[in-house]
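Summary: Need help interpreting a holo structure output

Steps to reproduce:
1. Submit the protein chain below together with the SMILES for zinc ion.
2. Request a joint structure prediction with the ligand placed.
3. Inspect the C-alpha cell block that comes back.

Expected: a single structure record containing both the chain and the bound molecule.
Actual: see attached output.

Input attached:
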Amino acid sequence: MVRPKKNRMVSSNPDIGYFTPGDTPAADVDVIKLSVEEREALRLSDLLEMSYEEAGKKMGVSRATFGRVIQKARKIIADALINGKAIYIKGGNYTIVSEKTMFICNKCSHQWEETRKKRGIERCPACKHEYFQSVS
Ligand SMILES: [Zn+2]
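--- attached output ---
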C-alpha cells in the first residue's frame, strides 16, 4: 500500500513558473516539470545555503527526505541545462506557510510580526515612529 505523501511546507508560490532555452524554437523543446517543493528545496539549500537538517525542518520533513527532494530537483535542473529542456514549475504536495519576521520599535519597544514579503511597513503600528528593526 502506498502511504499518502505528507504536504511539504513552502514559503511562497513561485513568481516565475516557466523557463525555456532562448535559442531553441519553443515547439522543439522538451518540457520537464519541477514541483513547487523541489523549487523550495533548491531555494533553501542552494540559494540560502542552509544545511539539509535546517532546510528539512523548514519544510517539515526529515533530513533524509529533504536529501531525496533536493537530489531530484538538482537532476531536473541539470537535465534542463545540459539537454536544453524547458522547466515548468507546478504542482506537488505542499502547503504555503508565510515566513514571519519579528520587529521591535526603537522608541516604544512595541513588538509585532509581519510577513517578510509584505512591503510598506514603514512605521511602528503602536506609536507611528519611523525607526524600528527586525529581531529575527
Ligand atoms: Zn513604537
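--- end attachment ---

Reviewer comment: Residues 63-83 form the longest helix (21 residues). DSSP finds three helices and eight strands in the chain.
Status: needs-info
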